Every structure is written in C-alpha cells, then in structure tokens.
Amino acid sequence: YLDIIHKECRRCADIVQSLLTFSPRKSPEFCRVDLNKLVENVMRLLHHRLKQFPPNMISLALAPDLPAIQGNPAELEQVILNLVLNALDAVDGAEGEIVLRTRSKDDDWVILEVTDNGLGIDADNMNKLFEPFFTTKPLGQGIGIGLSTCYHILQAHGGEITVDSAPREGAMFTATLPQYSHSKTTR
After folding, report:
1. Which end of the chain is less packed: N or C, by CB atoms within 10 Å?
2. Tens-place pLDDT, residues 46-98
3. What is the CA radius of gyration of the chain?
4. Three-state DSSP class for 47?
C-alpha cells in the first residue's frame, strides 16, 4: 500500500508541475546546462520504476563533449521524463526498445532524440499530439498534458519538438535546443 501511495503522490506532483507550466508565474532562472547529465539524472529518478522492465530495454547514446545549453534544469528534466514515460507506455514489455540519443547539429543546436519501437502514432493524431489534454491513452492512464508541457517548455527555451512516427513502427521525438553560446541570456 505504501508503494501505491508513493506512486500516486509522484503522479499528482507531476500533474501539478505540468499544470503550472500553463499558468502565469515567475520565470525560472536559466543557467548553463549539460543535457547529458540531465538525461542521466532522469534515468536515476526512474531507476525503481525501470526494475519491472528488462534491463536492456533502455539504452543511452550520449554524445561525448556535447555542447552546453542554457536553460532551467528542472523544466528540461520534466521534458526528458515525459518523453521517456511516454516511450515506456508505447513499448511492449520484453520486446520493447527505447534509445535516448544526444548530439549536436550545425554548431548551433543540441538534439535529444527519444526513439521507441512501440505502437507508433496514427496519422489522424499526429497534428493533435501537442495540444493540451489530448491523449491516446485509456481513461485513467493519462491526462494529455505531458507532450503539451514539453512543447511549451522547449518553446520557452528557444527550441522545438518534433515527432516522426507511423502506426506499429514506433516513434522518434526530437527536442532541439540552442547551444549555450547561441541561447538568449534572459527569459
């Protein structure tokens, strides 16, 4: 029972944090951020939950010497967490594979890709994915603010998020952020 209570408290905290993304509030402080470290932090946060899955289900392909970005670490961790949790929901247990990859692009951008071999996304739903409260999950398993939250956080960081997917062929979510030297210094 304590485990259930703990999981539900964390879920409620995630919902509140996501809702705060849509409300007017003081802008968080930006600082120099190592995206690879944020990915590793999120994987540590998920360590207990990941024990129920095969050990090799998630692999990391983190670029060495990845350029820094400027941002709010807590918000960026929320993006990574949402993308990983969505990928976990999309894959089928023992057969599932998820890859988190970082890389730089054109000396201006830092890229995070979260790829899975899960259910994929129907073409009819592709243009609705980032709308608040849109979900393809069964009732009680999602409220539809995770990807919308990711969209708004990345937009506030001067970045973007895109998706490439087809039904039963998995999905790849790509978060693109400006490198530190090219980032805005204030919000």
Report:
1. N
2. 888 888 888 889 999 999 999 999 999 989 999 999 999 989 988 876 688 99
3. 16
4. helix
Contact status, residue 96 vs residue 57, Cβ threshold 8 Å:
yes
Partners of 101 in the beta sheet? 61, 113
Instruction: Output the CA–CA distances (angstroms, integers) from residue 92 to 106, 164, 186, in the order listed.
Output: 35, 19, 42
Q: Longest Cα pair distance anywhere in the chain, in angstroms?
A: 50
Of the candidates 130, 126, 113, 116, the one whose C-alpha atom is nearest the C-alpha of residue 173 is 113
Cα dihedral sign, 8-16-36-119: positive
Q: Can you say how many angstroms the Cα of residue 22 is from the centroid of all Cα atoms in its chain?
A: 17
The model's pTM = 0.79
Q: Is the Cα torsion angle 103, 131, 73, 87 positive or negative in sign?
A: negative
Which two structure tokens, joined as six digits, stand for 44? Answer: 């540590």
Residue 175 sits at the vertex; the CA angle it makes with 171 and 176, to the nearest 5 degrees, is 140
Residue 140 CB coordination number (10 Å): 6
Amino acid at 28: P
**Selection from 119, 46, 123, 57 nearest residue 82 by Cα:** 46
